[in-house]
């Protein structure tokens, strides 16, 4: 599915076309300065694409341009898809959001929580609350990521082989057993911490459905939504469309190719990471955002009820807190001020506190290679941005994209 073209005059959709070109001018400077290899962005309103633009190269060394059909590693933009999969099973009565996950994943029966000490000699205590399904969906389970470098438990993850990827040879079931053997960072439900929770959620989907995660995605989500170019690997002729992965050079921040990490997507992974594993195209992910904006339905195919989508895109943090108050100040795919968290998405509560032009109720997420999307139900707006620069904290692309899109809305 690579058809991506403007479907309506921007003016009919409430945009000033000249102002929309500011998006292209600003983002192109990153490429001209050598800071990004290339990018593609899609702006749609009321279900119609108002603006599509691409600039730069998907493979700088080979001189290959960014195209509509370019395949991108979407990293954590996998998380909302896994969350949708889980909520489809929830709608079938497979589990309640309050159910302890150890009913299906017995390795999490008696979690221990870090209390004090170093990563070499941690002191732990029993969890006072089981990890529940909603803890996984909201990143409040007490799990973490090795790449945070912020807590002794993060170091334990790295020692166990979990930093930016999973240990060779371990499938998702084995990874869950490894994570269950490590201490939690806090008591389940007591804080927010960006983590492998969505990977564990993917394993829950596998056990409950009796299907591997790639099979579930293909049969229940990608097939019905027409997302034919989204998968856990890019193989065969499709590799000709694959964007190379880049990292910033120390000092200059110029984009430097990193095939050692980037080539992993060229073969089916042993571990199907529900939190980070997919590659996709702009056209495919555009269909996913339209499915969300329309309340769980696209082209006559309904995967979720509107009520479920509303629940997923509401703030679930206790007391209506934002991430700044309830979260740990670490790397994540969004700023924390004024943003809450739902079931798989950040949720904007206070645009003034967040210093953004976006609307209350906007929901979003991004990926580690600087990809991003958001859905603004109040304006019936969806925006996608794709590039391949790891990590996403290198440049303020997402904040700038928001201000550039919204200033064009007249």
Automatic annotation (TrEMBL):
UniProt GO MF annotations: hydrolase activity
InterPro entries, sorted: Beta-lactam-related, Beta-lactam/transpept-like, Diverse_Enzym_Activities
Domain of life according to the entry: Bacteria
Gene3D superfamilies attached to this UniProt entry: DD-peptidase/beta-lactamase superfamily
Pfam families: Beta-lactamase
Key words, A-Z: Hydrolase
UniProt keyword Protein biosynthesis present: no
Domain spans labelled Beta-lactamase-related: 23-403
PANTHER family from the UniProt entry: BETA-LACTAMASE FAMILY PROTEIN (AFU_ORTHOLOGUE AFUA_5G07500), BETA-LACTAMASE-RELATED
Protein name: Serine hydrolase
Lineage: Bacteria, Bacillati, Actinomycetota, Actinomycetes, Pseudonocardiales
């Amino acid at each position: 599915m690579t058809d991506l073209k403007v479907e309506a005059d921007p003016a009919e959709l409430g945009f000033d076309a000249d102002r929309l070109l500011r998006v292209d001018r600003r983002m192109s400077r990153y490429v001209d300065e050598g800071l990004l290899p290339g990018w593609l962005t899609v702006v749609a309103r009321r279900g119609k694409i108002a603006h599509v633009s691409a600039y730069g190269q998907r493979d700088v060394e080979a001189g290959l341009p960014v195209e509509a059909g370019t395949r991108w590693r979407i990293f954590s933009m996998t998380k909302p898809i896994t969350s949708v999969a889980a909520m489809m099973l929830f709608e079938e009565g497979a589990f309640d959001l309050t159910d302890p996950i150890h009913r299906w994943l017995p390795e999490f029966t008696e979690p221990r929580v870090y209390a004090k000490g170093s990563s070499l000699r941690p002191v732990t205590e029993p969890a006072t609350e089981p990890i529940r399904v909603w803890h996984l969906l909201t990143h409040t389970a007490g799990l973490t990521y090795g790449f945070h470098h912020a807590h002794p438990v993060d170091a334990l993850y790295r020692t166990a082989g979990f930093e930016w990827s999973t240990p060779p040879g371990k499938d998702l079931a084995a990874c869950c057993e490894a994570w269950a053997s490590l201490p939690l960072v806090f008591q389940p439900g007591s804080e927010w911490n960006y983590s492998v929770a969505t990977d564990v959620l993917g394993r829950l989907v596998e056990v409950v459905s009796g299907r591997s995660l790639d099979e579930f995605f293909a049969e229940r989500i990608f097939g019905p939504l027409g997302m034919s170019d989204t998968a856990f690997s890019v193989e065969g002729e499709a590799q000709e469309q694959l964007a190379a992965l880049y990292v910033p050079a120390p000092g200059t921040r110029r984009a430097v190719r990193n095939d050692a990490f980037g080539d992993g997507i060229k073969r089916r992974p042993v571990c199907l990471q529900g939190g980070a594993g997919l590659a996709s195209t702009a056209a495919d992910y555009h269909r996913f955002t339209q499915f969300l904006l329309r309340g769980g339905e696209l082209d006559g195919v309904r995967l979720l009820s509107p009520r479920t989508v509303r629940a997923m895109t509401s703030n679930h943090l206790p007391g209506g807190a934002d991430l700044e108050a309830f979260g740990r100040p670490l790397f994540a795919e969004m700023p924390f001020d004024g943003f809450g968290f739902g079931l798989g998405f950040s949720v904007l509560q206070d645009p003034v506190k967040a210093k953004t032009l976006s609307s209350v109720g906007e929901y979003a997420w991004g990926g580690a290679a600087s990809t991003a999307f958001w859905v603004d139900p109040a304006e019936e707006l969806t925006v996608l941005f794709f590039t391949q620069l790891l990590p996403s904290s290198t440049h303020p692309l997402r904040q700038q994209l928001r201000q550039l899109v919204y200033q064009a809305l007249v």
